[in-house]
Write a structure and sequence with these properties.
Elements lengths: L6 E9 L5 E10 L4 E5 L6 H9 L6 E6 L2 E2 L10 E4 L11 H10 L7 H14 L15 H13 L5 E5 L7 H18 L2 E6 L2 H7 L2 E6 L2 E6 L1 H6 L4 H6 L6 E7 L3 E3 L4 E3 L15 E7 L4 E3 L5 E4 L2 E5 L2 E8 L2 E8 L9 E6 L5 E3 L8
Parallel strand pairs: 3-8, 3-9, 6-7, 7-8
Antiparallel strand pairs: 1-2, 1-4, 4-5, 9-10, 11-12, 11-14, 12-13, 14-21, 15-20, 16-20, 17-18, 18-19
Helix pairs in contact: 2-3, 2-4, 3-4
Bound molecules: adenosine-5'-triphosphate.
The site of adenosine-5'-triphosphate has 13 residues, from α1.
Length: 361
């Protein structure tokens, strides 16, 4: 048994009946006990993958292995999976306790009622809903319903937990609280978890690793910090990070990178960071807003269009080639709207992409 490949997805493809190819040759693996976030914009195929893992959808091609064994032909109920749906899917006419016990009192492996109640009680304690046992779902808050759905998914002690945007119906503050609770709960139970979200901050905060998708293709499968520090391509660089990364159109010549307002000597970049030889031509230079900062020796001068306060920091906004660009500065720096500032780039934090999005530096 290879614990590094507790879940293994191999060359998965899904073409829906209408011909839409939602998943295009996707392969990844999940380590036993890890909480992995499947991240990506709406429509990128996250739910399709969860449904294939759960057995609710058949793949067009490819294989899925749990613990080294292919499950493609195994019925959903025999895959030992817990699924928490976006809308919780609780039974409205049942109490919380009846909802949580339900998976244990139906089907071939049903347990005696007393035993089912004992197990349900254990998971209701873990998810802190014991005192809600006799309530109906309609009387519960979103966060409480969420906990019931998680308890119900865990009672069968599945080997894998799938969660599809489980926090999307909660308000911002509750999302932060519940995401921490989910992480600590799944870690204490030790269950291998795949958690779908479109929210990069959520993924960065709870994922042991993140798999970022776009248009049915994996863009990066990595530790959270690497999406930030070493994005694989232009899409990743722009999807992850808040405020979003700054992009500048540049032209490369033999010795220089030239934009409409600044010129960088190629000798100022680190040779070892080039991923390949760069022919002269058009590229995109991208840099995170905290790495382009006011400095009297800056590369270029610009006017501050606007300033946004975000907690302990401020975002300076300016216009470059008709696009908005941002610089992240601390609260104390005495700069105000309308000021002229010179901005300097930390060259070792610059990325270069081809117009097609390939990272070349
Ligand atoms: N039954 C279906 N028939 C045809 N196309 C489908 C079907 N279900 C989903 N799709 C399409 O497949 C793509 C992937 O859908 P999926 O629901 O997996 O995306 P997602 O990343 O989970 O998005 P969201 O966050 O909006 O749920 C989308 O373009 C969607 O329109």
């Amino acid at each position: 048994m290879d614990n590094n490949k507790f879940v293994e997805v191999k060359n998965l493809r899904k073409v829906y009946d209408n011909g839409h190819e939602a998943i295009k040759n996707v392969s990844f693996s999940v380590k036993k006990g890890d909480l992995v976030c499947l991240l990506g914009p709406s429509g990128c195929g996250k739910t399709t993958i969860l449904n294939i893992l759960a057995g609710l959808l058949n793949p067009t091609e490819g294989d899925i292995l749990f613990n080294g064994k292919s499950v493609v032909k195994v019925a959903p109920k025999d895959r030992h999976i817990g699924y928490v749906f976006q809308n919780y899917a609780l039974y409205p006419h049942m109490t919380v306790l009846q909802n949580v016990m339900f998976p244990l009192i139906v089907g071939a492996n049903k347990k005696p009622k007393a035993e089912a109640k004992k197990i349900a009680t254990k998971y209701m304690e873990l998810t802190q809903i014991t005192e809600l046992a006799d309530q109906k779902p309609g009387n519960l808050s979103g966060g409480q319903q969420q906990r019931v759905a998680i308890a119900r998914a865990l009672v069968q002690e599945p080997q894998i937990l799938l969660m599809d945007e489980p926090l999307s119906n909660l308000d911002a503050r509750l999302r932060l609280k519940i995401r921490e609770e989910i992480r600590s709960l799944v870690k204490s139970v030790g269950i291998t978890t795949l958690f779908v979200t479109h929210d990069q901050e959520e993924a960065l905060s709870i994922g042991d690793k993140i798999i970022l998708f776009n248009d049915g293709v994996i863009q990066q499968d990595d530790l959270g910090q690497n999406f930030y520090l070493e994005p694989n391509n232009y899409f990743v660089a722009n999807f992850v990070g808040n405020p979003v990364i700054d992009n500048f159109k540049i032209t490369k010549t033999a010795n220089e990178l030239k934009s409409s307002q600044f010129t960088i000597d190629l000798a100022d970049l680190e040779e070892s960071r080039f991923k390949r030889e760069l022919p002269d031509g058009e590229y995109i230079l991208s840099i995170r807003p905290e790495n382009i900062v006011p400095d009297p020796d800056g590369l270029f001068e610009t006017t501050v269009d606007d300033i946004e306060l975000i907690g302990r920091e401020r975002i300076l906004k300016f216009t470059f080639d008709n696009e908005q660009v941002r610089s992240l500065i601390n609260l104390e720096t005495p700069i105000k709207r309308g000021d002229q500032v010179k901005l300097k780039m930390r060259f070792n934090r610059v990325f270069l992409f081809t117009p097609e999005g390939e990272r070349v530096y």
